[in-house]
Amino acid sequence: MSNLYGDFNQKIDYVFKVVLIGDSAVGKSQLLARYRAVTSAYYRGAVGAMLVYDMTKRQSFDHMARWLEELRGHADKNIVIMLIGNKSDLGSLRAVPTEDAQEFAERENLFFMETSALEATNVETAFLTVLTDIYKIISKKTLTANTDTDSTGSSTLLKGTKIIVPGGPDSAAQKGGCCGS
Length: 181
Description:
alpha/beta; Rossmann fold; 39% helix; Ras-related protein RABA4d; GTPase activity; Small_GTPase; GTP binding
């Protein structure tokens, strides 16, 4: 299949950011999804993701498996993912039982939370949960990277530099006493 714009596998000289702006439900996400060159770049480097469905619309929840598959197909395998049921303020219109979402999240090893962006319920908590887990993962990777061993087989992480504090117990011993002769 010939490509009107040339071969995208060639060296890239420029990177441009293009944003999609418009009302909700006009098809912005579908435009993005149809343009596959953008899809991989969109997920590349992501360390966290929030899969959001409208708890008053069952269809949006039913699409979560497809979105999760796409995310896992393009993102890092260690990405932190949270399933979010939004619009908890519209409880009387609920179309997705909490139990259904909890089961899905447990089966797929995701965090789960119900939020209300309108009332700001659990919004900060959701972000902090994801960010805290990302931090834990990054810290473990840093710790693992720093546990290399030196030529003697000792951990370089445990190596330190002796610091002599003036007036401390080691300073007198090094100088041969406190009161000079």
